[in-house]
Amino acid sequence: MLMNLERNCKELMVKGEGDCGSRTSIPSNMFMSIFMKMKKVQKFLNTDVLFDVLTRIPVKALLGLKCISREWHCIISSRSFIRAQLENNELVLTGFILQEKFMWCKDDIKTVSYIPVGTTTTIGDAKMQHQRVFHFLPEDVVVLASCKGLVCCRSCFPSEEPTIYVCNPSNKQWIKLDWNGCEKNESIALAFDLDPSFDNFTKFKLVRVKQIVICEDEYEEIYLEFELYSSETGAWWKSNETCQCGNNLIKNKGIYIGGVLHWLTDGDQVLTFDVAKELSWLISVPVPAFEFETIPEACIGESEEKLHYVLISDVGLHVWYLDDYYESKWTLKNYKSLEEIEGKYPNFFFNLKNRVLERVDVELSPWMNPLSFKDGILLMKVCADLFLYDIENNKIAQTCTLQDLNSKSMSCPTVLPHSLSLVPLTHA
Question: Which residues does the UniProt record annotate as the domain F-box protein At3g26010-like beta-propeller (predicted)?
Answer without folding.
Answer: 139-341
